[in-house]
Design brief:
Elements (H helix, E strand, L loop, with lengths): L1 E6 L5 H12 L3 E3 H10 L3 H11 L6 H12 L8 E4 L5 H14 L5 E6 L2 H15 L6 H24 L3 E5 L4 H11 L7
Helix pairs in contact: 1-8, 2-3, 2-4, 4-5, 6-7
Length: 191
Amino acid sequence: MRIVLLGAPGSGKGTQAALLKDHFEIPHISTGDLLRQAVADATPLGMKAKAIMDRGELVPDDVMLNLIEERLSSADVKPGFILDGYPRNLAQAEALEALLGKLGQPIEEAVMIEVSEDRVVERIAKRAAEEGRSDDTEDVVRNRMRVYEEQTAPVAGFYEDQGLLTRVLGEGSIEEVSARIRGALNTDGSD
């Protein structure tokens, strides 16, 4: 199964991706992790990305897409994967679709984890306190939500237009949300 997880920052994508990874026994591909690993391994793409990040710039779409292509060429993703953190905008969604078409691995499901803005702010504030982070203030989080609504939320429409999008309520316990996602993917955990 090839899945894209969508949702606002703090919606629980990473947590749910880890559970789905174990359930389906397929890799969880986090673009943030991919980027950090490529930099740590000093791969050519990692070094290119590091130079860009060291200048305080965002890693461009083509570099991220190349990192994803490199990862999707690995043997362990043949049975499927869970992509978390990408695509973040329509241009990335279109580029990813072209790449996956070329690789013969099209997305089969897009799951949108929906959480209210107030709940996202609450979750991120709790996480910031637990991790001792001072950069996740309410104003910063609400700004991230505005950016998300402008740039990332339209990606849901991209997948909806293809008949691939399922919306799942992301509020409640981790287990409740996980059960909703598995149910939406037509698997109850007994397979």
